[in-house]
UniProtKB/TrEMBL annotation:
Residues 881-915 are annotated as: Disordered. Residues 801-1033 form the CHAT domain. Transmembrane segments: none annotated. Residues 887-900 have a biased composition (Polar residues). This is CHAT domain-containing protein. The lineage of its organism: Eukaryota, Fungi, Dikarya, Basidiomycota, Agaricomycotina. InterPro entries: CHAT_dom, TPR-like_helical_dom_sf.
Length: 1213
């Protein structure tokens, strides 16, 4: 206790019965600044110096004297801030025992000052009774402290400190109670530091607490408490001074306290709370997300362990709420800020009016509300925030060290309201509040840069409104000070640099001062290239850096660096530590950045950069999923353990991203704790993944492992069957990038006649038509765009206008630039292949149906190319590069239809695509694992808010995309999604391909057929029929090893183009041999292959049989092999015409009752009733004639025949 004299801790017990303690000095209405009280004892020797005590201004005209107490006659001298003596007073303990105040003799007679004191009566005896007195002082001091906590009266805290000081003085060295009494005194000194900001109090508190910790033996029951208190004092000093070493010590002490305390101990919640608070402070300093996540976790456990009704509950709720607010500021997760507000509301509710903790609870509630308002623009949040902030200011005592923060926060809320309403009174009020905060904040305070920055932002806002150059000049000055006071590596530095850059840019717009422009660019660059701080802040700085360069120096090479930096930060904003839904939430405000960058690159003639940026900044989530599924064979050959570790972590990350639960306000606390634990485990996995990637990239030859491919690499793996067309749509310009095999760089095709405005208008017009025709669900009515006659009608529908605009302004200029010409149908040439990769609002428009379908100049994309889509170039080139073989055990086609799902309109047309069943979701997943190809004829439902919850509706439940992604579909190849809106994107995430088709690609399917909007039963049936007919025909006539699935759509000449517009194909190509094996897995088809048809070549049989069986009613389909078996055994049939006619007669069956021949019960007829029947009849006739069967005529369709008899025995009907 060598330092004890500085704290008036004596070596022996008191001998007097009275002690006088000075409470305050008052000078109402006097313009004074008192700072020091010097006390000279009358009996002191000449060598002893006066004791000096700081005076703290607690309210206007009132100062408190800290620790000023004495036991004898003294002379007190009051000094001002310039060191001048103001006045003096002589006091004797015994003579003043009955008084409480006296005027001070002043050096200046014009000023009146009064000193107030309190005389404490101490009745004690020397010797054995001294410890009883010490205990009495200890208890009385703690009682006073409780009163202070309830009232906030500083004088009560002064009394408490004095009592505890005497308790320590009266306790003999080595006494068992000495550590606890010293600890109590130190805790109250720390509390007074919180109130007054007097650094000497905190220095003394830490000194005493460190002494206790050093002297207490290891294993002592009280050691965790002492460690916790010392840690809390280090945290408080860090908050004041900002020394990172203090914070590290605080966390270490608090963690040791927690580790030494058994579960269930009553003190554990306190230690957990303090540890969480220290971690939250470090997060605010460094921005390390793991710190705030751990803070929330331990604080939740503290709240859980706190009994209802405990006086400590409200503070723990407040601390936990503050941590959630901190995390929201970093992540933007609305669930975090909702939880913060709920916790703060509860803390305020539990705090009585007048309680000393009420101001901080109100202040934090107001802060959380203003943060949510800025995200949601809910005006009720803004009103509540200002109300809470004002109440917090009103309830905070003058002289409190918390008052500057309250003023600054209230000013921040006023600024937010000004930005919403434009009321100049609000911004004036904001500036006034923030200036008060600055005036009360001492130099060197840790929060000073924040107050400076807030004031600068408000002045900048007023400048934008009023144009006052003095405001913007003052704002720049404040921002410079804030930047200068912020240490390098602080998480807030990028934000303050960005604010300074913005203010300089604002002044440049008014003054055209070149130095302001250069400085603005420099500070934006510094913020963007900072290594710490919220990624979103740094990305925004990079965008501003790029934009100001484009405006002022459009040819500057730094534009490339700026966009490089901005796009590199996108992956950090939507990192793997978040769920897939959370990543999409983060990306909503970023969509369009890659398009802006690509437009700039095109303007700079950097088509290579445009492609790289589009690939880097679009479809990020699917790219992340694909990266997690990348084969590691090459790495495994170099380092098997590393490859296995990457594989294990990637699988765990994918599971966590797809299935991790999300907390919500109404969830029980125990479940919230579990969710937080999962989130922290997810965060640890993401960090481990990054570490493993660094290790892998350190291996020679793997430097670019799982990194974004440069343009040169992308161009080396293009499909040879046709070009990929990337179309960039930006507000500044529109361009196409044509990627052709054999070229080194993309071919740049400007689109000067197209614009973002036109794309958005086309999307709006098409969307209006879709909604007007209820094209959002699949039911009995046809929901494709209604077929219309192509004659000489003059009326042009909005849909045709959209398709014509796309043709003239986008598609035709691209085809012309590529040199594509119309395909000669007479020559039966197959059109070339082309993949579309649109961006922005163009992603919602049917480029594959673009054309002019009315008038004399009809033309369309169908006459030139076969269209497919790919969400990104990389998703296609990866499949070209990694064209895998298919397991013979997984070949085959799994088909299921779900025509009558509960809660959804019936879709009976699916039964014409295939027979329905009652398969469960689990059984469907098992079949998807077994078969490489699937056909789902059912309802599809897209969830824009939670994309992984998009689903296919089955009779017995829903098959969600997230569930599919979690399944290990090793053999996934083709997915035919005969469901509605399976490739419809989300407008707020136009560049993320948030739809079922892209999700199936991410799940591993190499090619997907889907719909851009709802499709009716009849068009869906026709598309599915033609799709498989074409594949079967291709099997018969193709000698190549692959089938291009998109050729199917070119055969749909009988379907009006607008009707087939919803259907698109996404992916690559299907191996022919695989499709043969796939069809062999269908039992009835396999039976047909075993038949021998005289005169009909074997390769024609599959096509004929497929058409025939699909036209059979469900009751006869299962008998198809037996029906055909009859003709196999009949020796009387004589040739190809007879055999084909037998099949054809069954093909034309339409119902069991209405089409029976009454004279021949077993006979069926074909009736030509409507245009569709005529088209169907003519199509069959054309097909048979193309195969050399020329004797089939239209007359044949007017007869019926008797089943079981030879076709020559026809019966006229």
């Amino acid at each position: 206790m060598a330092q004890q004299n500085s704290l008036l801790i004596a070596d022996k017990a008191l001998e007097r019965s009275h002690v006088l303690m000075i409470n305050s000095i008052e000078a109402p209405g006097m313009p004074l600044s008192l700072t020091e009280l010097c006390i000279f004892e009358a009996q002191a020797s000449e060598q002893e110096q006066a004791k000096s005590f700081a005076l703290v201004n607690t309210s206007p005209g009132c100062w408190a004297a800290t620790d000023a107490c004495f036991e004898t006659t003294v002379t007190c001298i009051v000094k001002s801030d310039d060191g001048q003596d103001i006045g003096l007073i002589h006091l004797d303990v015994e003579e003043t025992a009955d008084g409480h105040s006296r005027a001070i003799e002043l050096c200046d007679g014009d000023v009146q000052i009064t000193m107030l004191w309190k005389c404490l009566d101490i009745t004690s005896n020397q010797g054995d009774g001294s410890d009883d007195v010490a205990e009495l002082f200890n208890h009385r001091g703690l009682d006073c402290f409780e009163e202070f906590q309830a009232t906030g009266e500083l004088s009560t805290l002064q009394d408490a400190i004095f009592m505890l000081l005497q308790a320590v003085n009266l306790t003999a060295p080595g006494h068992t109670n000495l550590p606890s009494r010293v600890n109590n005194l130190a805790s109250l000194l720390a509390k007074r530091f919180e109130r007054t900001g007097e650094l000497s109090d905190m220095a003394h508190a830490i000194q005493l607490q460190q002494m206790v910790v050093d002297q207490i033996p290891k294993g002592h029951d009280d050691l965790p408490g002492y460690l916790g208190n010392l840690g809390s004092s280090f945290t408080l000093r860090f908050q004041r001074m900002g020394d990172p070493l203090d914070l590290s010590r605080a966390i270490s002490m608090q963690q040791n306290a927690v580790d030494l305390t058994p579960v269930g101990d009553a003190a554990l919640p306190t230690y957990l709370t303090n540890l969480g608070g220290a971690l939250a402070r470090r997060f605010e300093q460094t921005g390390e997300i793991s710190d705030i996540s751990q803070a929330i976790s331990v604080q939740q456990r503290a709240v859980e362990a706190t009994t209802q009704g405990s006086s400590k509950l409200r503070a723990r709720l407040n601390n936990l709420g503050h941590s959630f607010t901190c995390r929201f500021q970093r992540t933007g997760e609305l669930s975090d800020i909702a939880e913060a507000i709920a916790l703060h509301d509860r803390a305020v509710h539990l705090t009585s009016r007048g309680h000393s903790d009420l101001p901080i609870h109100l202040d934090n509630l107001g802060g959380a509300l203003i943060h949510r308002f800025k995200r949601t623009s809910d005006l009720s949040d803004l009103s509540r925030a200002i109300e809470a902030g004002q109440r917090a200011v009103d309830a905070t005592p003058q002289g409190s060290t918390d008052l500057p923060a309250r003023y600054s926060n209230l000013g921040h809320s006023y600024t937010a309201r000004f930005e919403q309403t434009g009321d100049i009174a609000d911004i004036d009020g904001a500036i006034l509040m923030q200036q008060r905060a600055l005036k009360l904040t001492p130099a060197g305070h840790n929060d000073l840069p924040t107050y400076l920055s807030n004031n600068g932002v408000s002045l900048s806002c007023r400048f934008v409104r009023t144009g006052s150059l003095s405001d913007i000049t003052d704002a720049i000055s404040l921002h410079r000070q804030a930047v200068d006071l912020t240490p390098y590596g602080h998480a807030e530095l990028p934000s303050r640099l960005k604010s300074l850059a913005t203010s300089l840019a604002d002044r440049f717009t008014s003054t055209a001062e070149t130095e302001d422009l250069k400085s603005s660019i420099s500070y934006y660059k510094a913020a963007a290239t900072a290594t710490v701080g919220p990624p979103r802040t740094r990305m925004d700085a990079a965008k501003r850096w790029a934009r100001i360069l484009i405006q002022q120096y459009p040819q500057s090479p730094d534009v490339i660096d700026a966009f490089d930096r901005a796009l590199a930060l996108v992956a950090s904003i939507a990192g793997l530590e978040k769920t897939v839904g959370g990543r999409y939430t983060q990306l909503k405000g970023i969509s369009g950045l890659a398009l802006e960058a690509a437009a700039t690159a095109c303007a700079l003639n950097r088509a290579d950069k445009a492609l790289e940026w589009l690939e880097q900044g679009r479809c990020l989530v699917w790219s992340q999923i694909n990266s997690l599924r990348t084969p590691l064979d090459n790495l495994r050959r170099r380092d098997e353990n590393l490859a296995q570790a990457l594989e294990d972590v990637s699988r765990a990350l994918e599971r966590a991203g797809a299935s991790r639960a999300q907390a919500h306000v109404d969830m029980p606390l125990s479940q919230k704790i579990s969710v937080e634990d999962e989130a922290r485990a997810h965060l640890d996995l993401a960090r481990k993944w990054d570490e493993l990637l660094k290790t892998a990239r350190a291996i020679p030859g793997f430097e670019s492992f799982l990194m974004q491919s440069p343009c040169s690499t992308v161009m080396q793996n293009l499909p040879e069957s046709g070009p990929i067309i990337v179309i960039n749509v930006d507000a500044n310009r529109c361009d196409a990038l044509a990627l052709l095999s054999g070229l080194d760089e993309p071919l740049h095709i400007p689109l000067p006649n197209f614009s973002m405005e036109k794309a958005s208008r086309y999307r709006t017009e098409l969307g209006s038509q879709l909604r007007g025709h209820s094209l959002r669900s699949r039911d009995l009515e046809a929901r494709g765009v209604r077929p219309t006659r192509i004659g000489n009608q003059t009326w042009d529908s909005p849909v045709h206008k959209v398709l014509r605009g796309l043709w003239k302004e986008v598609v035709k200029p691209i085809l012309d630039a590529l040199g594509f010409s119309k395909v000669d149908e007479a020559a039966e040439k197959v059109p070339p292949r082309l993949w579309w990769c649109p961006t922005g609002p163009l992603s919602f428009l049917p480029l594959h149906a673009a054309g002019i379908y009315r008038g004399s100049d009809q033309d369309s994309v169908l006459n030139y190319v076969v269209s497919s889509y790919s969400p990104t170039v990389t998703s296609l080139t990866d499949r070209v590069k990694n064209d895998r073989s298919h397991s013979s055990t997984a070949q085959g086609l799994f088909l299921t239809s779900q025509p009558s799902v509960p809660g959804a309109p019936p879709i009976p047309g699916t039964t014409k695509e295939m027979e329905g069943d009652d398969i469960t979701v689990e059984e469907c997943l098992e079949r998807m694992k077994e078969f490489g190809c699937i056909h789902l004829a059912c309802h599809g439902s897209q969830n824009a808010a939670e994309p992984l919850r998009s689903r296919f509706l089955f009779h017995q439940g829903s098959l969600e995309l997230g569930t599919i992604l979690q399944s290990n579909l090793m053999h996934a190849d083709l997915a035919f999604l005969s469901a509605c809106q399976t490739s419809t994107g989300q407008e707020t995430l136009s560049d993320e391909a948030v739809h079922l088709a892209a999700g199936m690609l991410a799940a591993g399917y190499r090619r997907v057929v889907g719909t851009m909007w709802s499709i009716g039963d009849q068009p869906a049936e026709e598309v599915a029929t033609s799709f498989y007919e074409y594949l079967l025909d291709s099997i018969a006539v193709s000698s190549s090893s692959t089938i291009i699935i998109d050729d199917t759509f070119d055969t749909l000449s009988m379907i009006p183009p607008p009707t087939r517009a919803p259907v698109i194909y996404v992916g690559y190509k299907l191996p022919l041999a695989q499709f043969k094996d796939m069809m062999d897995e269908i039992p009835s088809y396999k039976a047909l292959r075993e038949l021998e048809f005289d005169g009909i070549p074997d390769e024609f049989v599959p096509s004929v049989y497929a058409r025939w069986r699909r036209k059979l009613p469900p009751t006869l389909r299962s008998r198809a092999p037996q029906i055909l078996g009859y003709w196999r055994d009949d020796e009387s049939h004589s040739g190809p015409c007879d055999d084909v006619m037998c099949l054809l007669r069954y093909t034309t069956y339409k119902g069991e009752e209405q089409y029976r021949n009454p004279d021949h019960p077993d006979a069926f007829k074909f009736r030509v009733e409507k245009d569709s029947d005529v088209r169907c009849r003519d199509a069959f006739i054309r097909f048979f004639r193309s195969q050399g069967v020329t004797s089939v005529t239209a007359v044949d369709f007017t007869y019926a025949f008797v089943a079981g008899k030879h076709p020559k025995d026809r019966v006229p009907y």
